[in-house]
Fold this sequence. Notes:
Number of helices: 10
Shape: globular
Structural class: alpha/beta
Order of helices and strands: EEEHEHEHEHHHHEHEHH
Helix content: 25-40%
Strand order of the largest sheet: 1-2-4-3-5-6-7-8
Distance between the termini: 31 Å
Amino acid sequence: MPDLLLDDGQSVHFEDTGNGPPLLFVHGLGAPSAFFARSVAELAHDHRVITVDLRGHGATPQGAEPVTVDRCAADLRTLAEKLDVRGLTLLGWSLGATVAYRYLDRYGAGRVTGLISVEQSPYLPSENGWEHAAFGGLDAAGAAEVDRLLSASDRATTKGLVRSFFAQGATPAEELVDELTSAATDCRVGAKRQLWQDVLRQDWRGRLPSLGVPVLFLHGALSQVYPSAVGAWLAAVVPGARLELFERSGHLPFLEEPERFHRAIRAWTAR
């Protein structure tokens, strides 16, 4: 995996695989780019697939600077510029979708032709009756509990979090759960907690309609992370957006219904 040196002396790790329409995958909180390994292998047959480990995740060190959504978006911009990628489709999953929103909001769509937002809500807390909060109703106590879980370094806690990514009632293969758990344990506690606190402050409900690119929303109908009809809300708010609901998936449609997930991406990039 190559390294890219950034303006503050930090290095980030990325992979650049395949040829064709470029895709940049941005991973979720505490779930590095290794989560996308199967999708990368499949889509690299006819796409240029770029993955990156955000600061403090996977093979990228945390560094001395605070890890924020804004900082991660700036790192994406530097990566796109250094690789001179144009006609890019940004694919952000969970926290990665919020990072992609920030990229477009701050830097514009000069290099980007489309956005694929996978399993994310524009606002995580359940304040003032917001019905599409994380976990169905994230309050202050719930946010503190998530922070506690992110602070844990034992494998059992991480494995429990990974299992919660799958569809309600699902029994995923133990080998897959173990693989994802191993990847998730390769994330620094400090970076996870800093990003969690930052994403709690992010409110994209009024800003998503003006991102300036076509948007495809992909959501799991059985998600335990976002159990409401947030995908339908997003598709109604963003002009011209499309929604695909994965009936058998939770928070990981790219692993729970991979064939349909890859078809949706191919259709979107070929539109």
